[in-house]
Fold Beta-xylanase.
Amino acid sequence: DFTEPALKTVFAEDFKIGAAVNPLTIQSQEHLLAYHFNSITAENEMKFESLHPLEDTYNFRAADQLVAFAREHHMAMRGHTLIWHNQTTDWLFEDKGGGPVSKEILLARVKSHIQTVVGRYKEEIYAWDVVNEVIADEGEELLRQSKWLDIVGPDFIAKAFEFAHEADPKALLFYNDYNESHPLKRDKIYKLVKSLLEQGVPIHGVGLQAHWNLYDPSLDDIRTAIEKYASLGLQLQLTELDVSMFRFDDKRMDLKAVPAELLELQADRYEAMFALLREYRDVISSVTFWGAADDYTWLDDFPVRGRKNWPFLFDEGHKPKPAFHRIITSATKS
Ligand code: G3I
């Protein structure tokens, strides 16, 4: 019984509207998802450790369930993620004795993983986050320390895109990262992607995770990041949007219920953000939230376990919040 306009209809000429889902939320949020969203991403179920816990064991059950949900509801599906330093099993990097594997073996293993996974969902997944979060947050180093970097060297990035492209030449391949609008990291992401393009690596887009909050990043920084990435000639997608009620370094503030002033601030913030995103509708092809409604968000466990947060457009009962009404009014006016 939804009476409000559907997000996917209001923004149909702008970008896809997506949500991260998992096997629980496709049940508890099914009606909300089906009414408002036309794209989904698996929150955890397509990560390496979920799909490929042991060398000879793949576990596709949960991922297949999400793919079936997308198909049933005529939604697009993004794949997340093939290469990451997190949620990746140890066996991948180890030989039988527990020592590090050679570069050749690691590349052969990752090629086989990518062929299997991307190949399986060829008809269903139109875009993949091929490489996730490899840029170092601080300092001068371009790349974050990881087993990928230790064993293969910086080439693991280009190789992953090549393997994914071979497995599904039609899929759109993305580099995806967070703090993507902060100047230091923005410039490093730009540098990495530019060098991949110069090497002829098949990469088609930059994913801006967009884990933002009421105060940061500034609209100017968001705009500059969008323009800089777009200048590479690639398409952009917001892949994990949420607007936390707390500043990033505010690790303790705890609120039992959400104050009306914060809901208004959040409405201001979403309104300004969506107005900005719509200016760039020619380069931004999708806006995915990292969840759908405030009854379930990873932010309830981060950075403080159990601290409630309210980052989305819909409340815990799946009713539209002030932020929802604000972006709809503003989009239908212009
Ligand atoms: O699988 C275990 C389960 O067996 C156990 O009972 C339960 C108890 O806490 O934990 C489960 O694992 C959790 C897993 O999510 C599945 O729910 C992990 O503890 C938890 O750390 C993990 O968090 C995920 C996080 O990635 C891991 O880094 C979040 O759900 C997921 O939203 C988050 O998503 C990432 C994106 O992939 C990349 N960008 C950042 C984003 C937010 O961190």
